[in-house]
Write a structure and sequence with these properties.
The complex is a heterotrimer.
Chain A lengths: L3 H5 L6 E2 L4 H20 L11 H7 L2 H38 L1
Helix pairs in contact in A: 2-4
Chain B lengths: L9 H31 L5 H38 L1 E2 L1 H15 L5 H32 L23
Chain C lengths: L1 H6 L1 H9 L14 H6 L5 H4 L34 H31 L6 H41 L4 H15 L5 H26 L1
Classes of the chains: A mainly alpha, B mainly alpha, C mainly alpha.
Chain lengths: 99, 162, 209
Amino acid sequence: MSNIANVFNPKQESKPIEDCLSCDIFNSIFLLGTGGYLSSGKAILKDKKVSVKEFNKKNPIWWRNGVRSFGAFLIGYGIFRSFDTYESWKTSQEKKLSN
Amino acid sequence: MSADHSRDPCPIVILNDFGGAFAMGAIGGVIWHGIKGFRNSPIGERRLGFLNAIKARAPVLGGNFGVWGGLFSTFDCSVKAIRKREDPWNAIIGGFFTGGALAIRGGWKHTRNSAITCACLLGVIEGVGLMFQRYAAWQAKPMAPPLPEAIAPPTQAQPLQA
Amino acid sequence: MASMLSDNGSETFDRVTNHNNNEIDTSKLTNIASILTTPGFDSSRLHPLAGLEKGVEYMDLEDEQLSTMEGSQGLIPSRGWSDDLCYGTGAVYLIGLGIGGFSGFLQGVKAIPPNASGKLQLNTILNSVTKRGPFMGNSAGILALGYNIINSSINAFRGKHDIMGSVVAGGLTGALFKSSKGPKQMAYASGIVASVAGLWSGMKDKVLE
């Protein structure tokens, strides 16, 4: 097939990216770190300048819990990803050895 | 055949983006605050006002830009690693989280608005980028040899000329 | 390209010589339009070596090449001055942030009021770290930014990169950084930054050897 049509209308489809070990490692660490930060409750702290009432209005309970549970979810996902990353690291090591 | 040298692999590209954003902010800050400091000081002390404004404000502006760029790049990288895809949505999702993360101290409404604004902004930027890409591809299209007029059923068969 | 030749070199030869056996009958072709509309026309048949079946590849000879300037090869492959600038600034900012954070930590520990509660202790240290770290980071980032801009300008002007250029760039950056503090401070800053730049360049050359 001629590709001339593709030249006139370049497709902007989403391209899959090949496996990238450094990206996976980084991503696992990032997920665990962000998850830890969010679930620790340090992300939403009361400033001395705002009153308790105002703080509660700005940060409703569901929002605080939501941020915390999002953090917990990130930690869980980060653990899952870490295992994945470990697997792909192992296969890459085996590939290196067999070469 | 052509390896993609245009982006570096993930964790290290954050350093690049961070530095780039810092440089942009700092240089912009020198220009912006330099002019402001120059104009806002009395006539005799304009040079001093110019220098002081730059020294006090430009590094901070650079730092703020840098934090934004670095955070955005970090989120972008993570979204890429999770989705395993390369398309404009990465930047939009990354922008959403960046905006949210930077505003999280200001309460939930502030966080929501900031996240949405940031995502829209990134969407617009990505859209403009795509348009430019299309335009560049259209401009750089290989020129086909001009077709003879008889692209419809040729009335008179002419011998092919070498 | 070379691998393609070795893989199907014989096939290529066949296709070029025996084109009468192909579905395209050249005797019936009259003009380009009839070639393009011939049933069974395949762009890859025009010339196998052209690699037309792989699609069009745009070559950005200008943009995507690694820097080839003499002596400019760094620890990270660099595509030119903008890469040096971004990576240099980012890395130096992070180093400054780390050093500033550490010194802020030490200061905070020293500044803890006597018999303070645990929370107050933590707060004092955190405040000191978050104040000192970004300040040092910003200053270091500005220094690296200035150094990289001047260094790249010098390199571009001279057409090569060596330790001398780095040292001169460092000296200029230091002087510029302290330009509002008088000549003595300027000289100090200039000397410090120049020696750091020289040390760094020398170390880089040693590592790359």
